[in-house]
Amino acid sequence: MDSVTPGYTDHLQALTKETLVTEPIHIEWDPALIQRYDLSGPRYTSYPTAVQFDPNLKAEELIQRAQASAQVDTPLSLYVHIPFCAHVCYYCACNKVITRNRDRAQPYLDTLYQEMAQLSQWYAQDRCVDQLHWGGGTPTFISDEQMIELMGQLRRHFKLRDDDQGDYSIELDPREVGVDTLRVLREIGFNRVSLGVQDLDPKVQAAVNRLQPLAQTQAVLDEARRLGFRSINMDLIYGLPHQTEAGFAQTLEQVIAMNPDRLSVFNYAHLPDRFRSQKHIRQEDLPSASTKLNILQHSIQRLQEAGYVYIGMDHFAKPDDSLTRAQESGALHRNFQGYTTHAECDLVAMGVSAISQIGSVYYQNLTDLSAYTAAVADQAHAIHRGVLLHEDDRLRSRIIKQLICHFELDPAPIEQAFQIDFDQYFAAEQAELAQLAEDGLLRFQGRKLQVTPAGRLLIRRICMTFDAYIPVRNAVSGFSRII
């Protein structure tokens, strides 16, 4: 069994605390560059990406390495996956189970509690849980009583905070939130909510089977504020059927008026061969590539005008938000939950398809509900595939995270942490970096690399330069387009 490189933990903690103050993110639109570099590629919620997860690795080896490399003197982040949805949204690419039978929830929760007990034995070690997230599916598919029970089980097995100072968040479908549900969520410890909105145009909503009036969303948001939730995020999607520049601009104005703390504006990737529900969406109803680009351009410009900070890729936050402050201080992090402020936390995930990041190991549970249930019943876990990070993986992961979070890279701390000569180690990448610089995506200040305003939209493509698993720099199957 391999162990973490001596001193690596100390170096990583030092790098997390290093101060690389980032200027406010500005975007420069260059259609020629976008056309040239808007290919398919990873979103880099991890490196190596999930494509590299190996189903042939034995779970025992993954568990042993995870326990050996876990940051036991740091807090934990927990993720709970609730897969059920009462209605199918045609655009959705999440791991989900569509059912109106609420009785299916309790057997799943019972399985989850068995897995949770095993995970706590492996990783809890009296570590405080600074971050908690319930995702799905639709987490509020389960009843208020079941949510109370689930949080109670989490408190039984892990050291959850009781001072309301952690980041405890849950994804909400405003159509599925009962009158008392928000109050229950606040009472059991949640202080952040993320509302799925996608688009407020009734024609677009009908085309994706998600009818959700503005008043319904507004009512949930207002009640969340009244109850003292300290952060409200809204998710939007551009590229859905029947979307137009004018229509999405109107949605954006309505959303800005609701004044959420954070916004995510995701690119819809139409992959009907991979996601069956997307077969309900007609190709001819989708906006053109130029319309999608114009929608994104207007969205970024309008949100910045409204006072939001462009964090990167598809995320925006208010200037006083913790994401913004983390980016300004050089402490922003990225993992399977997207941009986060908890770089020091191991991520312990539970539920069907859930992905954990613990020490130098990533692993994913089985993605089929029946198989997940059987595996937990048989062996108290459902680990299906994963990857053991080696020194080169950790090095490249550090570089990619720095670029995708802060749009700059100073080789000096990297050289110190990994005992390398940066230019020699990445000699093969120098020609490509030079080409990116010549094309205006990058610039060099001495040895420091900075992503230009024209390159920030294409940060995923820049990160691909350091991806050892992508041998050819062109469109990569299995990933969404960059823009």
Automatic annotation (TrEMBL):
Q: How is the cofactor bound?
A: Binds 1 [4Fe-4S] cluster. The cluster is coordinated with 3 cysteines and an exchangeable S-adenosyl-L-methionine.
The terms under GO molecular function for this entry are: 4 iron, 4 sulfur cluster binding; coproporphyrinogen dehydrogenase activity; coproporphyrinogen oxidase activity; metal ion binding
Residues that bind S-adenosyl-L-methionine 2, according to the entry?
Answer: Y91, C92, A93, G137, T138, Q198, R210, D235, A269
Cell compartment(s), UniProt: Cytoplasm
| Pathway(s) annotated for this protein in UniProt | Porphyrin-containing compound metabolism; protoporphyrin-IX biosynthesis; protoporphyrinogen-IX from coproporphyrinogen-III (AdoMet route): step 1/1
Query: Where does this protein hold [4Fe-4S] cluster?
Result: C85, C89, C92
- Where does the secretion signal sit in this chain? none
Per the UniProt entry, what are the Gene Ontology biological process annotations, in alphabetical order? protoporphyrinogen IX biosynthetic process
This enzyme's EC code(s)? 1.3.98.3
State the UniProt keywords alphabetically.
Answer: 4Fe-4S, Cytoplasm, Iron, Iron-sulfur, Metal-binding, Oxidoreductase, Porphyrin biosynthesis, S-adenosyl-L-methionine
Catalytic activity, reaction form: coproporphyrinogen III + 2 S-adenosyl-L-methionine = protoporphyrinogen IX + 2 5'-deoxyadenosine + 2 L-methionine + 2 CO2
SUPFAM superfamilies xrefs: Radical SAM enzymes (SSF102114)
- Job description of the protein: Involved in the heme biosynthesis. Catalyzes the anaerobic oxidative decarboxylation of propionate groups of rings A and B of coproporphyrinogen III to yield the vinyl groups in protoporphyrinogen IX.
Protein name (Swiss-Prot/TrEMBL): Coproporphyrinogen-III oxidase
Q: What is the lineage of its organism?
A: Bacteria, Pseudomonadati, Pseudomonadota, Gammaproteobacteria, Oceanospirillales
